[in-house]
Design goal:
The protein is mainly α. The chain is built from three helices and no strands.
Length: 56
Amino acid sequence: MAGAAFPAGSLPIRLRDRLEAVFDDEPYTDAFGVRGAPGFSPAVLSLVTVLQFTED
């Protein structure tokens, strides 16, 4: 959907594509429980933090 909305791309899309391998969920699996409502992916939370920093 993002590709359709921004055919020329955007900074967040380029960052996500470039840093996808860096923000992997595997190293964080022990920090998350298996009960209760699922939370956001650690990779997504990390990427949002980087995007917020770029937006100042």
